[in-house]
């Protein structure tokens, strides 16, 4: 059951929910939900159905959920964001160079005046 708890925790994090948020939605205490995530408490079928509905999944999807696809999606997204960041950094460097050039031009014009 520990792996199921890990899956539930991962899904909760992906939704941006706290343990308190999920506990309220399941109408259980925060410690009770924490025990589900850590695998201390076994989940009965009705609770499993309740959790799967909460995450818009079937029980089978929840039980067989594999975060590998999600991780691949995140890696691709991270690579895209990293590339954009590098492009922005290049733009910033170019703008800094322009500012330095303009500063030098202003300084020279003041010296000649």
From TrEMBL:
InterPro entries: Cro/C1-type_HTH (IPR001387), Lambda_DNA-bd_dom_sf (IPR010982). The keyword DNA-binding applies. Gene3D superfamilies: lambda repressor-like DNA-binding domains. Residues 78-105 form a coiled coil. It comes from the Bacteria. Residues 8-62 form the HTH cro/C1-type domain. The keyword Acyltransferase does not apply. GO terms for molecular function: DNA binding. PANTHER family: DNA-BIDING PHAGE PROTEIN, TRACRIPTIONAL REGULATORY PROTEIN-RELATED-RELATED. This is Transcriptional regulator.
